[in-house]
Design goal:
mainly beta; 13-stranded antiparallel beta sheet; 53% strand; globular
């Protein structure tokens, strides 16, 4: 991957540390993984005091371009269940909710959704680190103390995430100013995603348990937890 960040020694050092952690057997095996499909389970809540709702989910992440789709089913029976879809495809994001997976009850699109979903894709490097090897238009730059900013070149919303990299190269967290839905409006709010555990897979280290949340004036609010049960390569 030819990228404009290559000339910066600090960026190169951080990227090398990240790759050493993510690709412990070298890059050859990881280059065969052009995407990943996962299945897992987790829980989600809508407010700091809200009830956790369990879900099962499947996700597809493309390592060669900015594209992912996460489908999660909440509820027990088909009539009482609903499916939430988070996706970024063809340069646009969307969030949809369908009762029984069929009847649409909510759909969010627009520039703010585009930005937020692209930021979620960029944070997917924790699950699919071969993005670092295959994506043709990522820009990476060292910003601050052991932070690597990742964005897509010439993307209009300015979506970016900062990956915090600890001494052993492990990506400790992804952070961003991400649009948060507050009532009927979106407000740029500090957001974080962390990998609680990494496991070896296809020559890489990939996140198995993830958490995500918002940093609010009253403190951190973790709204999402997921444990990945299976991975399959998307060649």
């Amino acid at each position: 991957m030819d990228a404009p960040h290559r000339a910066d020694p600090e960026t190169e050092a951080l990227l090398a540390a990240l790759k050493t952690f993510c690709f412990p057997q070298g890059e050859e095996a990881a280059r065969r993984v052009r995407g990943v499909k996962t299945a897992g389970q987790g829980e989600l809540r809508m407010s700091p005091k809200g009830r956790w709702s369990p879900f099962t989910a499947e996700e597809r992440i493309d390592a060669t371009r900015s594209e992912f789709c996460w489908d999660a089913r909440f509820g027990g029976s088909r009539l009482g269940s609903y499916v939430v879809t988070d996706a970024y495809e063809a340069g646009h994001g969307r969030l949809t909710i369908k009762v029984g997976g069929v009847i649409p009850v909510k759909k969010l699109t627009g520039p703010e959704v585009d930005k937020g979903e692209l930021q979620r894709y960029l944070a997917s490097i924790l699950i699919c680190p071969s993005i670092l090897l295959h994506h043709p238009s990522l820009e990476l730059a060292a910003v601050g103390n052991r932070k690597l900013r990742v964005r897509q070149y010439a993307e209009p919303t300015g979506a970016a995430v900062e990956i915090e990299i600890v001494e052993d190269g492990r990506p400790a967290a992804c952070r961003a100013e991400r649009p948060m839905l507050v009532g009927k409006k979106t407000v740029l709010t500090p957001w974080f995603a962390t990998a609680v555990e990494f496991v070896p897979w296809e020559g890489m280290r990939v996140a198995r348990r993830m958490e995500a949340g918002w940093t609010l004036p009253e403190g951190d609010f973790t709204y999402f937890r997921e444990e990945i049960a299976s991975y399959a390569p998307w060649h």
